Amino acid sequence: MFGFEVGDMALMTGWVLYLSIFILPFIQEDAAVIGAATASITGAAPTWIILVAILTGLVGSDAWKYWLGRLARSRAWAHKFAEKPGVSVAGDLVRTEFLQTMLTARFVPGTRIPTYIACGFFKADYARYILVLTMTATLYVAIWFGMFHTVGAVAGEQAKFWLPAIAVVCLAIYILVRWFNHTAKHEGPMTPLTKEFDHPMPDMPGFEGNPLEEKNEEETEPKE
């Protein structure tokens, strides 16, 4: 990934390490958490500082995606994000099962961006969005760090080397499987829900040239 390996975090120290942990979620969230957990079990820095850095990075990397959804209600350039496969499905779930949907999005990487954009598009309360985003990120990080530290303590010093390797391999396999489903089956990121349940966005405030707006206008015009 841009010449950077997850294990490289364990070789960093000080502000370089903390800044790297904060920035990496903007590139790849799961790799960032694995890298932070690796740095933690190798003693590269105090665990509590690493936790603050990774949680701040995770929340910061997702907080702005909400506003892509809000902008999609009135900006043509942003509207293309709302038309991505899965956003309408996520929107339905956000409106009916907000907490469960946000929790699912945190643990299923392919659903995160559509869900977070849908939160903005359907005007979910932003304070609530940030609160739940922080809660799910904390739970996700706690599970990874708990696994690394528990297994590391049980298996000894060698776990500092093979546990991160296993985590990276599992992540790579997961990404390959989702890529295969996307290319071979021509399904969107929320497979298999997208293909079956995706639909045009309702209540589209628009901009000139929005085909959904034009369709709504035609449907509301009085018949002669």
Q: What is this entry, summarized?
A:
By secondary structure, the chain is mainly alpha-helical.
Counted by DSSP, the helix tally is 12
Radius of gyration: 20 Å
| Count of domains | 1
Q: Helicity, in percent?
A: 55-70%
Describe this structure in words.
The chain is mainly alpha-helical and 224 residues long. The protein has one domain (6-220). The protein is 69% helix and 0% strand. Helix 1 (14-23) runs parallel beside helix 3 (47-63), helix 3 runs antiparallel to helix 9 and helix 9 packs across helix 10 (159-184). The longest helix is centred in the middle third of the chain and has 30 residues, at 126-155. The model is unreliable at 205-224 (pLDDT under 50).
Summarize this structure as a short list of keywords or feature phrases.
224 residues, mainly alpha, 12 helices
Topology diagram in text:
Elements: H1 14-23, H2 29-41, H3 47-63, H4 65-71, H5 76-82, H6 87-96, H7 98-107, H8 112-121, H9 126-155, H10 159-184, H11 193-197, H12 211-220
Helix pairs in contact: 1-3, 2-3, 2-9, 2-10, 3-9, 4-8, 6-7, 6-8, 7-8, 7-9, 9-10
